[in-house]
Amino acid sequence: MDKPLAQDEIDALFQQARTKAASPKAQARNPRMQPFSFSRGGQINNEQMRAISLLNDIFARNLTHNLGAFLRTHFNVNLVSAEQLPYDEFLQRIPDISYVGSVRLEPIGAICVLQLDLNLALPVIDLLLGGEGKPATVRELTDIEETILGSVVEIICRELTAAWQPVGLTFKFEKRQMQTQIARLMAVTEKTLSVSFEMRMPQVQGILNLAFPSVVSNTILRRLITDWGRQNRRRSPEMLARVEQRVQQVRLGASLQLPSVRIAAMELESMQPGTVLRLGLAATTPAELHVAGMALFHALPVRAGEHRGAQVVGRNHPLLNLSTE
For residue 204, what are the domain limits? Predict the structure, then answer.
C-alpha cells in the first residue's frame, strides 16, 4: 500500500513542477552571457573575404602571364590564403633573411608590407642577368641585385593596381625595408589583412606575402562590397518590368510658377489688397512647370473641366532635349 504524502511534501512537488515550467521563460528573459573580446571587433565577413579572394585571383592570373613574359620562362602564381591577423603575428612568419618592401596605397596614404622569399628572388635575378634561374643558397642581396629585383616588385605593384582598380587603390613601391625597420611600418597590434601567394618557376618556388592595414578592410572593402553587389545582382526581365511599373506610379510634387524675378522691398511694403504688382515679365512669357523642385517644362495655365491644368509648350531641362522627338 502506497504511503500517503504529507502536505509539505505535496507543496514541494508542486513548487518543483512550477520551477521546471518557468525555466524556459526565465532563460528567455535572462539570455546566457558569453565573454566577448574587443580585439575580435571589425572582423572581415565572408562576403568581404570572397570579394578579396576574387580580386587576388585576378591579380594572380595577370601576374602569371605578365611576369612570365618579362622573365621569358614558365611562371605560375596561385592564391594560397587570405586571413586577418595581428601585425606582430605576420612579422613572426617572415624569415630572418628575406626581401621586405613598403608599398604606399593611394589615395588613402596607408602602407602595405610586401615580403618575397629570397629562395625565389635569387633565381629571378639570375634569369634577368642571363642565367638559367637555378636554385641558389639564400643570402643577402647586393646593391645591384636589389636594384634589379626592384624592377620585378614594380611589376607586381602595377598588377596589384590593375586588379584592385574597382576599389580605387594605387600601389606605389617605395623602397626595401631593413629587418630592423619592418616593425615600425605598423603598430604591432594592428589588425592586418594577410594575403599569401605561391610562385612557381621550373626549378624553384617561393611565397609572396602582402599585409594590408586595417583601414583597407574598414573602409575600402565596404565600397567594394557595395559596388560589386550592385554590379553582380541579376534581375529577371519580369522583375525589371515590375520595378518600372512601380516607379511609374510614384507621385511627385509639381507646381506651375512664373520664372523668378527681383522685386524691390519698398514695393512689397506698400502692397495692399487689390494692388497690381508689376513683375517685369512680358505677357507672353510662359510659366515653368516644376516637378520635384526642378523646372522641366515651359507651360501655360489652362482649365481642364473643373480643374486647373498646365499646357506644356516646350522643354526647359537640357536632359529632356536629348530625348528623341
Answer: 46-232
